[in-house]
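Margin note from the TA: students keep mixing up input and output lines. Inputs are the sequences; the output is the structure of the whole complex. Example:
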Amino acid sequence: MSDLEKFFSDCTQIVDARLDKLVPTNETAPARLYDAVRWSVFAGGKRFRPALVLAVGTAFGCQEEKLLNAAAAVEMIHTYSLIHDDLPAMDDDDLRRGRATCHVKFDEATAILAGDILHTLAFQAIVNDKNLPAETRVKLISELANAAARMVDGQQLDLDGEGKKIALEDLEKIHRNKTGAMISASARSGAIIAEASGAELKAVTSYASKLGLLFQITDDLLDVTQTTEILGKTAGKDKRAEKATYPALYGIEETRKLAEKVHAEAINELKTIEIPTVVLCEIADFILERKS
Amino acid sequence: MSDLEKFFSDCTQIVDARLDKLVPTNETAPARLYDAVRWSVFAGGKRFRPALVLAVGTAFGCQEEKLLNAAAAVEMIHTYSLIHDDLPAMDDDDLRRGRATCHVKFDEATAILAGDILHTLAFQAIVNDKNLPAETRVKLISELANAAARMVDGQQLDLDGEGKKIALEDLEKIHRNKTGAMISASARSGAIIAEASGAELKAVTSYASKLGLLFQITDDLLDVTQTTEILGKTAGKDKRAEKATYPALYGIEETRKLAEKVHAEAINELKTIEIPTVVLCEIADFILERKS
């Protein structure tokens, strides 16, 4: 196992333990709702966003304990968005992280409510975090709310664009909102909790912004180059939905070159800050090379 | 116009003005999303919950300006829940506040996203409220998140109970969660912003808890005694859905007596605090006598 694999594996373990503490069990009525929530939260997600909170926060020397509720919160927002995006009225997907989506396993009403309660629980996780001063909790909630709002804007823009020819500029706007905002908020949350300086926060923001773009480019690539089995979600659906994607606009080879360019830019953004950036660079490598 | 009618009319005006400031317009892309949000937010709702924030807060001598974002936030959470509850997979309702529901006027995907963004905007309204210290914002967000989570629990319990015989105890549990929690949070938010004492907050909580119960009892009564035209939403739907209601359990006359008893209890809870309670008593009267 490489150092980064070990980092991700450790992250998954501690973030899952925290999520298990923060998400009510099915012993808290109504059982069906929390069964559905836990079905989606503990579906073997990569925990990329929480790992980013932890990687940035600990790079600035912050204790792990202070980062965990924020890490769990970004994953809860991410999972709520996946549950709602998979609904029949939205992307209508049956498969997520290798198993039935929430509305398929349970039902549509329960899936809508499972997303809704996760959305609330995310804010609750931060606001009730006794490890952090009120001022920090306010900053984090503001950060999370801004990103969550942009994520919904992005999903609407994405739906509006289906079947239409979309310019690169509009495509990037969709991704900056839909995926990039929450990735940036994750990295920034780690820096905010660690009380990074303004200049440091700026560098982290630029790095995360490139990382978000890289994530989307590789996501588009995987959709056309991988199988459903490896992805754990339906492959090739962007093409069927006639979505604007980087491979559709540029072709696969040019998109790979673009990914490498953005990867280099992400790493470059870290050069202005004086903290150990090994893990942050490895995360960028990992996204460039990911297979699922 | 009675004093209370004037109070409600004034509340609606200032709360609507604040909502108009806090909810992006359709000039902020994506237009369809914010058209949908505004369709539901400005649908002529009674603004009962925000009025309660203002009534309690001003009774404790708090400036109106400090209460307005919290007042707008409770209405946003309420409206998000209505949009999602009306969806085909949930209560499947075409009519709300006298006009087409969000998913009928727009589409299901947009309605899901409109509810989602309102949910986020509510937390954003409080966290970004520069009129309040960070400590107060944290208390308010905690209050709102707890209530919003209980509201979703209550909706799930309500769906789980459709077509089943439900005991009074379970019925009250559904309502305490689904309706009561947000009504209590509204009243408590007013008291929290006004820096009410522990004893005062306790009295307000007891009053609001009775008020919530009264609200539900009269809601059940209106569903069986009023027309769709007067209600502005589909009448008689509880019976068709075989929902457990007070009239179904007790009959109409006994339910009216129960409403009067709960009304008296609500008023009684206010006797322990030394603030002007005229408006709060009138609000209880208003709920007892409401026709829609």
